[in-house]
Amino acid sequence: MADKDRPWLMRTYAGHSTAEASNALYRRNLEKGQTGLSVAFDLPTQTGYDPDHVLARGEVGRVGVPVSHLGDMRRLFEGIPLDRMNTSMTINATAMWLLALYQVVAEEQGADIAELQGTTQNDIVKEYLSRGTHVFPPGPSLRLTTDMIAYTVAHIPKWNPVNICSYHLQEAGATPVQEISYAMSTAIAVLDAVRDSGQVPPEEFGKVVARISFFVNAGVRFVEEMCKMRAFTRIWDTVTSERYGITDPKQRRFRYGVQVNSLGLTEAQPENNVQRIVLEMLAVTLSKDARARAVQLPAWNEALGLPRPWDQQWSLRIQQVLAHESDLLEYDDLFAGSHVVEKKVDELVGEVMAEMARIEEMGGAMAAVESGYLKSQLVSSHAERRARIESGEEKIIGVNCFESTEPSPLTADLDTAIMTVDPAGEAATVEAIGRWRETRDEPFWREGTRDPALHPSAAQALQQLKDAAATDENLMEATLECARTGVTTGEWAGALREVFGEFRAPTGVSSAPVAVTAEEGSALAAVRAKVARTAEDLGGGKLRLLVGKPGLDGHSNGAEQIAVRARDAGFEVVYQGIRLTPEEIVAAAVAEDVHCVGLSILSGSHAELVPDVLARLRAAGAEDMPVIVGGIIPSADARALREAGVAAVFTPKDFGITEIIGRIVDEIRRSTQLDSYTPVEVPA
Length: 684
Fold this sequence. Notes:
Blueprint: E1 9-11, E2 13-14, H1 19-31, E3 37-40, H2 43-47, H3 70-76, E4 86-90, H4 95-108, E5 117-120, H5 125-131, H6 138-155, E6 159-160, E7 162-165, H7 167-171, H8 176-197, H9 205-210, E8 212-218, H10 222-243, E9 256-260, H11 272-283, E10 294-296, H12 309-325, H13 339-361, H14 365-370, H15 373-391, H16 424-439, H17 443-446, H18 458-469, H19 476-484, H20 489-500, H21 523-537, E11 544-548, H22 557-568, E12 572-575, H23 582-591, E13 596-601, H24 606-619, E14 627-631, H25 635-644, E15 648-650, H26 657-671
Parallel strand pairs: 1-10, 2-3, 3-4, 4-5, 5-6, 7-8, 8-9, 9-10, 11-12, 11-13, 13-14, 14-15
Helix pairs in contact: 1-3, 4-19, 6-8, 8-10, 8-13, 10-11, 10-13, 15-22, 18-19, 18-20, 21-26, 22-26, 23-24, 24-25
């Protein structure tokens, strides 16, 4: 028996409403034994908008904490000594900005920034593919990442400046082979860019490799997932030694954190999510040679809405029981020498290396993003997985099998089983940022020690940032100056938008192959027939469905699967991707003369954005056009949306996509008063 290992870092992904409320939550979590912080930022912060921007409406403080300027960052970490904390920040397009704010707050606390420890996720590739909080095109985005890495290696050597994130790839449908190969190809793109930038001397490059970390997903197939982590470890060792010539084994170590799979959590029988979370955690903790360095677990009720502090505490206790009550940490690797494990790992490694070679031939990860190859592969894999669930081939307890259940005391009152965000908080945040802009150049507002007369104003700092962006100068120093002078998140990103432009990633929908065949007697065949008959009844042509993503929610997986299945059922689908205003969605619906509008929102902004779409349709004379909504929508909100005029509301429990398409046809027939309303019969 070996000496008992130290447990991994235990985090809870948290942040909501305001900096003050999130600070109180962090302090409580640390008192409960959490050993690191994991900051969730709201969508405006992640996508570079201030709370008063039109696209931020309904999104402020919903899925994380709004951090719009230095004052917010000060309040977020009030009373938490940053030089003694390990902080993970889930931030990508605006990672440089948030790290700058964090560094300035640490300086104000009197910390030596060389002692700061933590991680900025900063993986823009998976944003193009799955998460949707990208801002700039691939080239400038890679430059921002490169500049951050070069800066941190020189000035914040204990910081992980990039966290290659395969987590969301799995949620977007990636198989283990795709998850490893796309993540590794992204890491290669980042390391090549840093090497080729000339900002780091060749003899220092091992330090760059040593600070690359990964953030992975662990699903419920925990044997396969554990083998996936061993394959990750082996491939990373090969890449770093053979491609980059790193000889120090410590610098080649595969360092990763994990959040287990939120996608697999179910709205039906949500108590089953607890055992799912435990099994998924075992995949990344059982194997000592491939054990996670940090673990954060979702809460059992995430498919219902925003978890409460008690729900997050339950997830933290799961980790603590395994680490401190069990004997897991007393043993060497449990799987060393296992023929079964080695065979599976060998298979994964071989398939991954082949896929990585294919991506390399395309010109690397960035070229594979721009061509649409990676996105279409993920959409296809996800469609195939959904088809397996709908057919019953892939079983999900409580969803497509063992569906009978006793009433659950956990969800007896659904409206109190989750936490809700006070809508008044958004108005207060909007008002506060107006005050900040008006007074930031005044000495009393700084709360710091610098003499404002000796330093640029916010406007001057922004101009310096734009000037630097137009050259090949490292942008971190100009960004730090913006942070110190009170520039806002939206202003920083807006200045770079002016220089770099914006990017709309490929949707992958048009190129996705058919995942469910419409064989005679099948559910899809019945829906196809109903689509064709309805189109004929309406005068010919095709039924047209607009799939819209209003607001800043970039989780497009559900919308893409609806779009692909509607296409396969005979619809003409209008899908313009993510991040649209209600005005843009209604304009497209009217211009394309669609028969139905489908809105997908997972961020909680449905209460603000859906009524806006309905009002704009009425104003455009299209009040008879049915609107359906899908997302993580609490039951009380679903009732309110239907009362407001929404034809149907779908939540994660409605896993049958073909049945949803059938319902859409029914709503079109009802709205156009075709015969009597008869719901489509869909074979089980």
